Amino acid sequence: MGRAPVGRGALLAFRATAWASGGLTLLTYAAAYVGVLHAELSVIPVFSGFLALLYVIAAVRLSLRLRLPARTKILVVLAAWVPLGTFLAERKMTRMVRAAAAVQ
User: Fold this and answer.
1) Contacts for 93-99 with beta carbons within 8 Å, 24 or more apart?
2) What is the phi/psi pair of residue 97, to 5°?
């Protein structure tokens, strides 16, 4: 018997952390580029790092449930440190979850 399909809550948690992590990473890069990273905005990189960590935890949990190849797992985890990587990983993992649900 195969494993149970990935639950809706697990997929939503992964998607939310991917979008939040990617969005804050882009906001951090934009603020640094413009040069407005003042004292009141210095907390953005901390939140970005925290959300990147939450993204990695959610990505690992989801990839273990899907039994993904090692190369795909590594790429999904490394996407946390690439500005647009979490968005791309979110789309790929969502497609994989939906494909796994359709098979079962």
Assistant:
1) 93/11, 93/14, 93/18, 93/59, 93/62, 93/63, 93/66, 94/11, 94/15, 96/66, 96/68, 97/5, 97/6, 97/11, 97/62, 97/66
2) -65, -45
Task: Indicate the residue type of 70.
Answer: A
What is the tens place of the pLDDT at every residue in 35-60?
Answer: 665 655 666 667 777 877 888 888 88
Backbone phi and psi for residue 92, each to the nearest 5 degrees, phi listed first: -65, -45
Domain locations along the chain? 18-103
Calculated CA dihedral for residues 5, 12, 55, 100, nearest 10 degrees: 30
Cβ distance 68 to 96 under 8 Å? Answer: yes
Per-residue pLDDT of 56-74, as tens digits, reads 888 888 888 887 788 888 8
